Amino acid sequence: MIELRNVSLKYGEKEILKKVSLTVKDNTIKAILGPSGVGKSTILKLMLGLIKPNSGQVIVDGTDITGMKESALYAIRRKMGMVFQGNALFDSLTISQNLGFFLRENMKLPEEEISQRVAEQIQFAGLEGYEDQLPESLSGGMRRRVAIGRAMIFKPHMILFDEPTAGLDPVSSKKILSLISSLRHNNNLGAVIVTHIIDDVFNVADSVAVLYQGEMIFDDVTEKLHESNHQFIRSILSDKILEL
Ligand SMILES: Nc1ncnc2c1ncn2[C@@H]1O[C@H](COP(=O)(O)OP(=O)(O)OP(=O)(O)O)[C@@H](O)[C@H]1O
């Protein structure tokens, strides 16, 4: 479980988050919805301990990580997989090498186990036949699936997605969303999805937190979004996609 308790954060003089509280339960999918620049990616960085709040606490599985040293944070980050907005694949490595990279470099696992885990992710992400290709020869949707496979290969129990469908066509978006849904069912995994696309929320999320002007204006099960009278929520429900 990941919790943000009364988290406030400034970049310089700019106040980004104002006393934001949020809970992501295990084995559930939580969406964080909000306009561009509101601080959604910042929340993911706080959850990974990459940045620290000015006040408030970030709790991961009952442990307060707010004041933790970098060395202790390593173990916390190992519980979480991260899929970055631009995928962050290595252009000069093949798909298999991309998938196995961190297992080789950071975990120093035996080659046999690496090959087995890579093969599992190739199958899970539907990338059979592309093992020896470079990322540039794959479609945007396939590259996103490689990035998901690479996050999954550590066997995390929570996975964080930054705009998982951004830049994808509707068919690829659908595939990515069903892959995300299948993570929970097949692997008992929780997920956080940062997005500005309302359809993503209704397609996969159990609950949604809406961030607007630094504050969490809604945090409840997804179906209740329709009951909100907040003007911003009413406008996103009618427009379906937030201003970029
Ligand atoms: N390292 C930084 N230093 C200063 N300002 C920053 C830094 N990182 C982010 N910001 C600013 O903080 C605000 C929130 O950024 P963040 O990336 O969290 O937004 P976001 O909601 O994820 O937006 P997007 O969907 O466009 O990525 C933005 O105004 C951004 O310009």
From TrEMBL:
Superkingdom to which the source organism belongs: Bacteria
Pfam families: ABC_tran
Record SMART domains: AAA
Transport found in the keyword field: yes
InterPro entries from the UniProt entry: AAA+_ATPase (IPR003593), ABC_transporter-like_ATP-bd (IPR003439), ABC_transporter-like_CS (IPR017871), P-loop_NTPase (IPR027417)
Residues spanning the membrane: none
MF (Gene Ontology): ATP binding; ATP hydrolysis activity
Span of domain ABC transporter: 2-238
Keywords from the named record: ATP-binding, Nucleotide-binding, Transport
Protein name (database record): ABC transporter related
Native organism: Pelodictyon phaeoclathratiforme (strain DSM 5477 / BU-1)
